[in-house]
Records
---
Amino acid sequence: MTRASIYTVGGTVQAGSGIYIPRQADEELLKLCREGAFAYILTARQMGKSSLMVRTAEQLAKEGIRSVIVDLQNSGGQITPEQWYLNFAMRLKRQLRFKADVLAWWRERRHLSVSQRLTLFFEEVLLAEVEERVVVFVDEIDSTLSLDFTDDFFTAIRYLYVARAQNLVLKRLSFVLIGVATPSDLIRDPWRTPFNVGQRVDLTDFSFEEALPLAAGLGLAETEAKRVLDWVLKWTNGHPYLTQRLCRVVAEAGPPGPQCWGENGGRVWLIAQFQVEREAWYPLAARSGGR
């Protein structure tokens, strides 16, 4: 693996590939999932939400807790409510690999609304087929904001949470919602109860201590690598994507010359290196305030 290849600049950090930087959110989310709590991670893009989701699901699997990851961005835009909800149920079946004929079950209950069928599906099919606890990660939930029928989806999730008090089986089921929307965006009908269940998990920017593993890929002596990493973090404010991207640029550029170690030399050198990838320059400048 080359030095630059240890940095992930887009997509998720898969197990065994690239450097994954654990943060406080890792411990918080894993703890909530172990407890069967409902949780949500709603923050800006490129903050590492999907990588956190994948890593948490991998850890839960080691502990005997089943996980399902449903990316709503792949559900399509031109779609009917019937297709959207059935597609959601079918994706759960494929990942959990249970035997029930979901299509037949779904069609037999056409007299019910799609959201009613979905809640019954969890109760009568999924939890009947899967004996272990199940965590459903729902990624890219903001993609639902362009659809006019998904208020019922989040209302159904809220129902599954509230109904735990009467139906103990539902305590084996929990959800983690992931995206850039806010909880108030999820149910837009002002006459409905807002989406007010679940615990928020905050994803923070990298601190210097958290980001230290990234210094190993810069190809510099330890002291110099830490200094360059400090330069990078001052530019990116610790933003995960921008930090890894600038580290990759630095690693590919090679070590800075002696003239760069002065007070302003590092700043000038970073600017020169980052011009190599101009398409990423503008978000970096906006994020860092143009320092």
---
Amino acid sequence: MSFDQWLALNDLGRSRTSNRASPRVSPYPQRDRTPPQRLQDEASPATNAASPSAHRTAAQHRLQLVIQPIVKNTIGQRDTSGEAPDVFAVNGATFNDIMRKIWTKFSCRVKRQAVKRDGTWSVEEPLEQAWSKVMQFKSGRHLVDSTKNSQAWNRWIASTRGETVKLMIYQYGLAIAKAQDLEEFLTACIRRVQTDRSGAAAESSLQEVVEELKEIWRATFQADPIVWRMWANNIVRSMDRSTWNREILRAPPDYIARLLRPAGVEVDRHLSSLTRSARLALDCVNASLADNEAQSQHNEVQRQLITRQKERLLQRKSTIEIFLADIPLPSINDVEDPLERIENVEDIDHEE
């Protein structure tokens, strides 16, 4: 008897025995056991057809890294004094896949990347490609070299299977080695340089943010000066000066957005105002031309009246001259003196 025939008879005997078995009595729930799986070589054609997707899924989780994040201000700060979030386990096909997931999870813990060039501190945005400038792995008591290539990183992750690796996350990057460096950087780039007596942002700082807001958002929004100042005040309220540029690039808060007007509406309104002003000026010119024409007509009437008056005066002058010509005056020699003909009456009233 072959082995396969023996298995068939054994299964048949079990089925008969199970059919004659008494009902199951147990205080515990019955569990359906999964039959043993065959090896890959003995699998059915359907299983072999689905194996590529299974291989891809297995490849995506080929590497696993378990990390204990520790957020620190400086490199010299003790690990025990740093903030320790929950342990994070991540899978991936390569180290780059794993690092991309780690960056997505913990990049929010990095506030800014401090950079010191020629003794001057400056601030840069941390990038995923330059994660080694703000993060560091630590296995046991030793820091892991961050200059490995991809293959070396893959081998290192494989060697840490079953272990928990520390991930040092520096809020301002690896350039801050000690507390003195942190204080110098905060004074130069983070803390407000100018404040008023109450500790709020000074007028110069507020006006600087207003100008930056207008420079970036003027093509999109239009608003009254007080609205720009309200928006700027909302930004400078944070004591962290390094966050101002990021907040300026963000969309305005809801209570500010309600006070803003689209730039296109303002342009249309401005063009309409210019058109109305131009038309008003044209109406004024046309009215002046009409007044000039009326004055010219009035002057023409006055000229005609003056001409007619002159003609009447000339006619009267001619009439008087003709009259004088018809009645000539007598000669002075022909006029007699009436005194010679008057009798001299004696004055008797005044005689004595």
---
Amino acid sequence: MHFTKDEYDDYFLNFCKMHFKNMKDEDVTFLQAYVHNTTGHHPGLVTFFMNHIKDHFYLQLKYDDILIFEKIFLYLKSYDFMTAVDLGFYTYLFLQSLTQEETQLFDKVYREPINIRLSGNIDQENQRLVKTNLLSKQGGKLNFTSPFLHALYLQRH
């Protein structure tokens, strides 16, 4: 499941209009591209990123300070953000409790997306991974839902 380009643009720009009023257009554009590329326009990840950015910079935003992309980028690379992922990102909890078979599948997918047509039973055996949006079917291949989840898997295993 992914936002279409129009859905993503609508959601993102409306969120920024509502919560990041004093952000310069250039910074909004950089953030929009970064969140899109990092999350793979996965709705849950986009929402998670945007809400945590808003919450982290609440005081700065409350007093109408200008928020710049560089500060947001540093926050998204910080220990604080990774702690938020560890504690509150629903899909990440599933990533921590993979069975041995699921871990083996993730290892294969990590190396290279798997052609579903050639893989036989992957669909039925690992339906939970697709239902929880850890993996997705993209162009006939099984792959990580987003680059962020790909990086999390590498980091945690």
